[in-house]
Amino acid sequence: MPSHPLDRRIFSVRPITVPAPGRGLDLKVKVTAPLSGRDLPVIVFSHGNAWSMNGYEPLVDRWAAAGFVVVQPTHLDSRRNGIGWDDPRFATIWRVRIADLHAILDNLDDILLQAGDLPERTDRERVAVVGHSWGAQTAGAVLGARVFDAEGKPGEDFSHPAASAGALIAATGTGDTLTPLAVEHLPFMRPDYSTMTTPALVVAGGKDQSQLSTRGPEWFTDAYHLSPSPKSLLFIADGEHTLGGIAGEAVAETTDEDPARVALVADTVSAYLYGAFKLDDAPWAALGNAADGDGKWSISSK
């Protein structure tokens, strides 16, 4: 499917510590990149709840093989930090997550320097922010989405000028149908996508039934339908929340294990970003032509 070879050698460097004053715990990241190549675009990836910089290898390794430098933070909600819903720090983690991505974007030059020869091989004018699940809401905020407060007023603008494109995978929908569980522990899951003007791809699964909303799987398409163009949507009819296992092979959260589905998600994100960055339109055009006629997956754009 992709027009870029996926057999190139890649490497990873971890941990790299990023300045993050007042965070309480050091912000550490992992960098994964091709061993060769120049003018490499960047993906900053925000993980889902409880994960870390060591997860999502099926996505990250494929992106690096496609020519991206991928930077992954470990957010405070990682299992390794032991901060559960009852911890007083949990209520503000959504803000710290956004601050983590800002810290990475602000210190990208130093991060790349610590990862070897990447400063001279990376195109820092082409930076995308991508996330899965809670990470998708985090990434969305950096792309311009806001969060409604208890009175229904949109909060502050968390967008970052360095992020010129992005992708939201299984992103939180609007907050008017949150379940009691979500209202109690995750009241910040009330995104306002009307201000998310940055070009982005939304990825949603047709069998992704969240315990956080009383709506069905269409909840995860709100980021596409309620945000300004230009946006695109990859809809995978049989996809559940981890879309075949994007967080890792045979991990406990995967309920729809399907390596081909994972490759589809990874390659669609790569193709979209190559097009959005005006590097190569061929992979995105090829995906549009290959969209499955039997309804397994589809691509829409506006």
Question: Main traits of this protein?
Answer:
single chain, alpha/beta, nine-stranded mixed beta sheet, globular, 302 residues, 8 helices, 11 strands, 22% strand, 25% helix, two-stranded antiparallel sheet
Describe the structure in your own words.
The strands form two sheets. A nine-stranded mixed beta sheet has the order 1-2-4-3-5-7-9-10-11, sandwiched between helices. The protein has a two-stranded antiparallel ribbon with strand order 6-8. Helix 1 (57-65) links the parallel strand 3 (40-46) and strand 4 (69-73). The protein is built from eight helices and eleven strands. The chain is globular. 25% of the residues lie in helices and 22% in strands. With 302 residues, it is an alpha/beta fold. Helix 2 crosses helix 4. The longest helix has 18 residues, at 259-276.
